[in-house]
Amino acid sequence: MHTNGAGFRTRARLAPHTRARLTAHTTTQHCYGETLMAIKVSIPTILRNLTDGAKSVEGEGATLAELITDLDKRYPGLAERLVENGKLRRFINVYLNDEDVRFVGGIEATLSDGDTVTVLPAVAGGMR
């Protein structure tokens, strides 16, 4: 076991070229050498009061559900505005890399390093 600069124990040292590539991105170091990439989440104006006005935030998770849980820890109240009874709220649209998540697994959609998630309120109405 080795210890990295932040004091976490890691199982193996990374090659210098790998270390440089990882530090070029926003990363979070977890114990035992597991490194998760932050996922960028675009927040609509209507929900920015929960993110202190931030247009985009970063979070972690292997699935959309885990990402929302992670974001709710940092921005309390966000999950209840996005999820109801374990499913995405009907009038909230969530896109994973420009694909509607309802067609790629819903709340259990798998996320990968460098993914971008966009949250948009549904727009309804029109002329009669």
TrEMBL record:
Q: Which SUPFAM superfamilies match?
A: MoaD/ThiS
Q: Which residues form a coiled coil?
A: none
Q: Which InterPro entries match?
A: Beta-grasp_dom_sf, Mopterin_synth/thiamin_S_b, Sulfur_Carrier/Prot_Modifier, ThiS/MoaD-like
- Superkingdom, taxonomy of origin: Bacteria
Q: Which Pfam families match?
A: ThiS
Supply the name of the protein. Answer: MoaD/ThiS family protein
Q: What taxonomic ancestry is recorded?
A: Bacteria, Bacillati, Actinomycetota, Actinomycetes, Streptosporangiales
